[in-house]
Amino acid sequence: MTPKLLLASLLLFLFHFSAAQKKTKTENIILITLDGFRWQEVFTGADSSFMKQQTFLKDPNLKEKFWRSNQEERRKALLPFMWTTLATQGQLYGNRALGSKVDVSNNQLFSYPGYNEILTGSADNERIHSNDKIYNPNTTVLEFLNNQQRFKGKVAAFTSWDVFPYIINDKRSGIYVSTGVQEVKTTNPTDVEKMLNKMILSVPNPLEDVRLDAFTFYYGLEYLKKNKPKVLYFSFDETDDFAHRGEYGAYLNSANYTDKFISELWTYLQSETQYKNKTTLIITSDHGRGDNTETWTDHGQGVPVASQIWMTIIGPDTPPLGEVKGESQYYQNQLASTLTMLLGIEYKNEKKPGPPISSILK
Ligand SMILES: [Zn+2]
Fold it and tell me: In Å, what is the CA distance from 156 to each residue of 29, 74, 87, 117, 304?
């Protein structure tokens, strides 16, 4: 090797070394999903044509709560945290009217395949093609992190849908997954946990075996305060259930409540030394849905536009770009690598995960 070549390789080595060692400020990650919540409502708020369809929640109520003639006011009325705090301090992707596109890469367009793609960084159309309670053969990013010294025992999930223990494969991964309409058993339960345990078995639940999102959130928030995990996943479900029933008012209300949960969570995070200015939130959905009054209740292979999703992000490493404009295309399979990139780690598993969205750091 000539001295010149030696110098060149040394520089190249140093460059790679510093790139791999690039320090991010994020030490904790909270991933949040709203099942089947459409990008259309995220960016334009309530849709008046869907509101008119309502039979259960009468139009005047709904109109007063969520309708504004100005689109910016309308989306803010639906998702106040998203369009005040997140829009000024974070980044929002997926407004197709502005050229920003986010899609799933699986061809199934429903929940288990979507969550598998978010959490493993790859679509698996061959093996993941139903919502059946089958233990996921793929390793999720949660398991990948839980297997590292820094995160061992510091990864947990609170989910409304009871298929998550299978998606996250709690048996193999050892990750704590809280789900289902049942009391949550903890050591030294707090007053809040005791109260939630009393209520969960006495509050009528229209969603049957799906835990109401408020329980998922408050059980999870209490866990966060008690156990201080470094990686926490909240999976909310009501939006999808109400949409399937054609209950647009309830669908909007659920999204609005979830936005308030996220706001409460953010306020807590900013008040705690472990989390303040060291925590990134990633918020997204598992799939989209139809885009007109006939198809909005549905998703799946018969509704191709259900591949369209959105994502938002807020944290110490992501500059406040607000609503992202201009042509760009990202995929759901990039979220897992993006999540670990924020923690300064490269995500690897048995498949080839989608590349991290490095532009969010600029
Ligand atoms: Zn669904």
Answer: 11, 34, 27, 18, 33
Q: Within a domain: residue 203?
A: yes
The owner of tokens 């039979």 is 55
Q: From ligand 1's centre to the CA of 72, what distance in Å? A: 28
pLDDT in 10s for each residue of the chain, 362 residues = 566 666 666 666 555 544 444 589 999 999 999 999 999 999 999 998 888 877 666 667 888 999 999 999 999 999 999 999 999 999 999 999 999 999 999 999 999 999 999 999 999 999 999 999 999 999 999 999 999 999 999 999 999 999 999 999 999 999 999 999 999 999 999 999 999 999 999 999 999 899 999 999 999 999 999 999 999 999 999 999 999 999 999 999 999 999 999 999 999 999 999 999 999 999 999 999 999 999 999 999 999 999 999 999 999 999 999 999 999 999 999 999 999 999 999 999 888 999 999 999 98
Task: Measure the CA–CA gap between 137 and 327, rounded to whole angstroms.
Answer: 35
From first CA to last CA, the distance across the chain in angstroms is 37
Distance 211 CA to ligand 1 centre (A): 15
* Cα 301 to ligand 1 centre (Å): 12
| Domain membership flag for residue 17 | no
Q: What is the pTM of this model?
A: 0.93
Q: How far is the CA of 88 from the centre of ligand 1 (A)?
A: 31
Assign residue 162 the CATH number of its domain: 3.40.720.10
Give domain status of residue 154, yes or no: yes
Ligand 1 ion local residues (Cβ < 5 A): 36, 240
- Cα–Cα distance for residue pair 38/301, rounded to 1 Å: 16
From the CA of 290, how far away is ligand 1's center (Å)?
A: 11
Domain total in the chain = 1
- Give distance in angstroms: CA of 136 to centre of ligand 1: 19
User: What's the CA-to-centroid distance between 21 and ligand 1, angstroms?
Assistant: 41
Residues spanned by the domain of 201: 23-361
Rounded to whole angstroms, how far apart are CA atoms 156 and 338?
18
157 is a domain residue: yes
Q: Which two tokens stand for residue 131?
A: 């919502």
